[in-house]
Specification:
Layout (H helix, E strand, L loop, with lengths): L6 E2 L5 H5 L10 E4 L7 H10 L6 E5 L4 H9 L4 E4 L4 H15 L13 E2 L1
Parallel strand pairs: 1-5, 2-3, 3-4
């Protein structure tokens, strides 16, 4: 993502992200469904309960229809199964940024947006 011009910050866990100062300026969150500690769906539920509306793109190596349903039902922008193409990820990120209003129709994407 950094090579495409996005600002990127990586966190070792959902808890590390939640304890960071980045909650208010994150334009898009890319989260795996399965993570140590709090999983991606738990993170999504926590953010929704806290009224912290960050567009989330979920990724997973597991073909889990229930997790996909729960993620999308919870407001996820997309749910990508690994391996996925660069184009699929970029499309999901663009959709997430449009959801936030950070990308205007017909203009090039502002690549200074933070992707987590």
């Amino acid at each position: 993502m950094a090579s495409l011009g996005f600002g990127v910050e990586v966190f070792n866990s959902a808890e590390d992200f939640l304890n960071s100062a980045r909650l208010t300026d994150t334009a898009c969150l890319i989260a795996d469904v399965r993570m140590p500690g709090m999983n991606g769906l738990q993170l999504q539920r926590f953010l929704n309960t806290a009224h912290c509306w960050i567009p989330i793109v979920f990724i997973s190596a597991h073909d889990d229809g229930e997790a996909r349903f729960r993620a999308l039902e919870g407001g996820a922008v997309d749910f990508l199964r690994k391996p996925f193409s660069e184009d699929a990820l970029l499309s999901a990120i663009k959709c997430a940024l449009e959801t936030r209003g950070d990308v205007t129709e017909g203009s090039d994407q502002d690549r200074s947006d933070e992707v987590r």
